[in-house]
Design a protein that fits this description.
Elements lengths: L4 H9 L7 E3 L2 E3 L6 E6 L4 E7 L3 H16 L8 H17 L1 H12 L3 H22 L6 E2 L6 E9 L2 E6 L4 H14 L3 E6 L5 H13 L6 E3 L4 H10 L5 E5 L2 H12 L5 E5 L5 E4 L6 H13 L11 E5 L3 H13 L19 H16 L3 E4 L3 E2 L7 E2 L2 E4 L6 H4 L6 E7 L2 H9 L3 E2 L1 E5 L3 H10 L4 E4 L14 E2 L2 E2 L9 H4 E9 L6
Parallel strand pairs: 7-8, 7-10, 8-9, 10-11, 12-13, 12-20, 13-18, 17-18, 20-21
Antiparallel strand pairs: 1-2, 3-4, 5-6, 6-24, 11-23, 14-17, 15-16, 19-22
Helix pairs in contact: 2-8, 3-5, 3-7, 4-5, 5-6, 10-11
């Protein structure tokens, strides 16, 4: 059913948002009794007060997860049975899609048209895909001689701590939870404090689908308290994290200072989007530029925030990208016609405005945007912003802004484009637009990035791995069967078949 703005607004006014921690299959208050406000970034108003998880609550959640893992209530199920539960969870999410898309939109300001079409749809697909794959993985037999049998098998690592971001809450949670649960682990999820609502609701739906109590626990809280406690906990066997590079490094410290738990992290990007003069369809490429940086208000780790343009078409592209930016003007995220909503909170808004001011101070040319907008709503809206004549040593070209701010950089040669693109501490993704097949392959091979798109941007599905090079990540990939490497141990069993011993 397609709802109108007035209908979504009516539903928003009546929403029953979850507000308690979810530990051992039960809704509980924080042991401290403290709560924090879940704020609607489109209005600045409080949606609900959520229990504020702290170190003691993390202890309780980890104890529950550890007990569930050790007694085998989930880990010892046949893979097919675990898979069937994940498929059922996908169905439960689909059955509650309208509630979940509304919670996502209210919590993080995501346009309602995308919270269903992207976030809910991708979440359903992820749980279903891993559920279907659960009983289709095989071990290996080593090529031994005739007197020994070497078996190579995968086992769950135990208790996984998942710390997830606020830009795609449901989808990112599913990228972590689905493979971790498929492998037989128990999980403690700490969603970003800006986006706890759908995480709590999916915890409930997981129980409804048949995931036993204690196998999935959800503890919203602050990074410096709940996140730190999870990272340092001696009974957590692995941490999977998506967020900033700085916080990813903290989890490495937490691991070193506790039990050397496995840490995997996806930690941001500064994607080069490279348009050569021989791009096969310049209209399509320029439209993709708008999508790459203004969709989701630029709050994407893969955002194409650095647009590298070959000199012969530079002026034309600058002018046309400025026009495209106008079509991404933000609006009420409950309006089905809205393509861009607010940024997630006031702190993020102020950070983005600060970068825009820095860009002007350092000499970049402001083409369009640059200001806060829709202030009468009380929300955190910022105009789509385009800078031209940017140098790659400017702050706006170096640091991840996580907002709708585009830096356009000219180049003259293929080698110069490659050098500019790789001159960053990040290496998550890149895109190249060219009709030259040799150039496409050469650029793809030379770019230090985990994903390279040729004549497209952000096109993929659950079957391919996602993760980066350099300070964009470490410790394994999300998505595809490669994600299971993060959540499993590889065990060798060597069996002597004769000749009297070793």
């Amino acid at each position: 059913m397609t709802r109108t703005l007035s209908e979504w607004s009516e539903a928003a006014a009546a929403v029953d948002a979850p507000s308690q921690l979810f530990i051992d299959g039960e809704h509980v208050d924080a042991l401290s009794g403290e709560r924090f406000a879940a704020v609607n970034p489109a209005t600045g108003e409080t949606i609900t007060e959520v229990a504020l998880g702290g170190a003691a609550d993390i202890d309780a959640a980890v104890d529950s997860a550890r007990t569930a893992f050790e007694d085998g209530r989930w880990a010892n199920l046949a893979p097919r049975d675990r898979g069937q539960v994940l498929i059922k969870l996908a169905g439960c999410i689909e059955d509650n899609a309208e509630e979940l898309q509304l919670l996502e939109t209210l919590d993080v300001g995501k346009p309602i048209r995308y919270s269903r079409r992207v976030d809910v749809a991708q979440t359903v697909n992820t749980y279903a895909w891993y559920g279907e794959a659960a009983d289709k993985l095989y071990g290996e037999i080593a090529p031994t001689g005739p007197h020994a049998l070497g078996m190579i098998t995968k086992e769950p690592i135990g208790v996984v701590g998942a710390v997830t971001p606020w830009n795609f809450p449901m989808m990112m949670n599913s990228w972590k939870l689905a493979p971790a649960l498929m492998a037989g682990n128990s999980v403690v999820l700490k969603p970003a404090e800006q986006s706890p609502l759908t995480a709590l609701r999916i915890g409930e739906l997981a129980l409804e689908a048949g995931i036993p109590p204690g196998v999935l626990n959800v503890v919203p809280g602050y990074g410096e308290t709940a996140g730190r406690a999870l990272g340092r906990h001696p009974f957590v066997d692995g941490i999977t994290f998506t967020g900033s590079t700085e916080v990813g490094k903290l989890f490495l410290e937490y691991s070193a200072k506790s039990n050397m738990k496995r840490v995997s992290a996806e930690t941001g990007g500064k994607t080069p989007n490279i348009i050569f003069a021989d791009a096969p369809d310049l209209d399509f490429a320029i439209g993709a530029v708008g999508f790459s940086i203004f969709w989701n208000t630029g709050e994407m780790c893969i955002a194409g925030s650095r647009l590298l343009v070959e000199r012969p078409i530079y002026d034309q592209v600058v002018e046309r990208v400025g026009e495209v930016a106008d079509s991404w003007a933000p609006g009420n995220p409950l309006d089905p016609a809205t393509k861009a909503g607010p940024v997630v909170d006031d702190a993020q808004l102020q950070k983005i405005i600060g970068y825009i001011e820095r860009g002007t101070e350092e000499g970049a040319r402001l083409v369009v945007g640059g200001s806060r907008t829709l202030t009468e709503t009380g929300g955190y809206f910022v105009e789509p912003t385009v800078f031209a004549d940017v140098r790659n040593d400017m702050t706006i070209a170096r640091e991840e802004i996580f907002g709708p701010v585009l830096s356009i950089i000219p180049f003259d040669t293929q080698q110069e484009a490659l050098e500019i693109a790789n001159d960053t501490r990040y290496g998550l993704s890149a895109a190249v637009w060219t009709s030259n097949l040799a150039r496409a392959h050469t650029m793809a091979a030379g770019l230090r990035a985990g994903t390279v798109w040729i004549n497209n941007f952000d096109t993929s599905d659950i079957t391919v791995p996602f993760g980066g090079y350099k300070e964009s990540g470490f410790g394994g990939k999300d998505k595809s069967l490669h994600a299971l490497d993060k959540y499993t141990h590889t065990k060798t069993t060597w069996i002597n078949l004769g000749r009297g011993g070793v």
